[in-house]
Amino acid sequence: MALRDLFVRPSSILMVLLIAGSLILAACGATPQQSAPVPTQAGAAPPPTSVPATPADARPQATGRTRLVFFGNLEPASIDVITMSGNVNERQVAAQIFETLVYMDQSQQIYPGLAREWSRSDDATTWTFKLVSGVKWHDGTPFTAQSVADYFDYIRDNPVGSGPGSLKAVIGSAKAVDETTVELTLTAPRPDLLIELADPGMGIGNAAYLKRVGADAGFNPVGTGPFKFKEWVRGSQIVLERNPEWTWGSPLFKMSGPPLIEEVVFRFSSEAQTRLAALEAGEVDFVDLLPFQDVVRVRTDPRFTVTGVLLPGMPQMNYLNTSLAPTDDINVRKAIIYATDKQGIIESVYFNMVEPAYGPLSRVFPEYEPALEQMYEYNPEKAAQLLEEAGWLPGPDGVRVKDGRRLEVTIVENKGWNDWVYVLQANLQAIGFDAKVLTTQGPSNTEAIASGKYHVPAMGDVFASASQMTRDWHSEGYGTFPSGHFLKGEDGARLDRMLKEAETEIDPEKRIEKYREIQKFIMEQALMVPIFELYFYVAHANNLKGFVVDGTGFYKYFAPAYFE
Predict the structure, then answer these.
(1) pTM above 0.90, yes or no
(2) 121 and 210 belong to one structural domain
(3) pLDDT at 51
(4) Structural domain count, the chain
(5) Under a CB-based contact definition with an 8 Å cutoff, are residues 242 and 263 in contact?
(6) What is the span of the domain harbouring residue 455?
């Protein structure tokens, strides 16, 4: 699970999103309460300038209740922002502990974070950030420009997670010009840098602390944010406590001074009904991934607020591993795509509350390639024909065979995220696959996908800029993304070149064309099975107010939250 997400966009696209969202919700008798987020394109990125701090609102009158319980679907494997894998559940927790240089709201405006001003060179390779002063790490040591320079140096020189890992190859040097000024020099243009830096996965990590304690930083992190790490009871909960010294918050939060909430508790269960039951029993205040079948009912309950957002990024999908037989055969990969009844999945698993996906990029992006919608239809007869052309013929038990080998594939499920995999399994079995499902969860899912041992891992990603496709598809791989398991040889080198050329393209129109070519190439090579655009429903207690949602619509910041 994945979101990044921070960005400005043409009003016409916003209207498309609002209309589409309304149609979907209207179909189930619901009313949208929040518009879909709108990622920006490179040319629409905020200009390199300072953004005046907006006056902070008066502190709200809280009720005295100061403990917030959030019930998510997966327990993180780490919550140190430098090393965590990229799992969205990790970022959700880390977003309360660490702060980013800039933030982005749901109207796609960039706000100051730890950086109060910024500028860049015309070629987008040199960026200068003026930091807020008086900041301290949670261990009491001062946060300075050297802290930020050390963070970027650490990313460049050490193995890191998928968040900062997406910048690793492009970091040239970082220099503390003075106590509050940092100059970052990149080896290639990065027109989307502010969008990337606003991702909760790009919180400024404490490199000195990480060097001192090593992997333990992932379980006892030290940030600068509004909440400090308190304890982690494995298999149960993570507890954060208010940082009483936090007075330098972003103007995005519209509130000065430390948080009103004294404790934020993150609990986890992959069982959606367990999370919902806890909310309805008053045991927790916020649940994500509300069960689709319960959205309408919960929305009519006056105790709760339900919000649905189309998350930008890579739609929910299944990778097709080209490093393994039989998915190393393009005809087999195409057969899997043709055999997948995504409309049946949408109807039977998601109650018509999501939309079909057609490629590796969500349709909310200006770079989205609409021609993909006509590339593969649901056609099991054509799928069977492709398998026969590839030499896979029906065996005595209905499973196809070739040269004495059975047509076997393993689908990897991340429990709590990929409920469609059993329909996909049935679709493949219907045309002669021996399709198995391997159920994993959290760290075991990360390990399974990174291993490259499985043919059809399920996945998705959340991000706000098309440039983030690099981490999903470049052969170098970032963090634990399985992109190193794809095309080899000239085809793989071509995809790598296309991704790098697109992410450094400053001209908006050329950039759109380059990303559309990438999407077509990925689908022509049949590297994935697009399933559906991720609509994400959450519910929270009505008296929980003030929290801020980031530009993707996924991540919540609880610094300004309070109970009314």
Answers:
(1) no
(2) yes
(3) 41
(4) 2
(5) yes
(6) 313-533
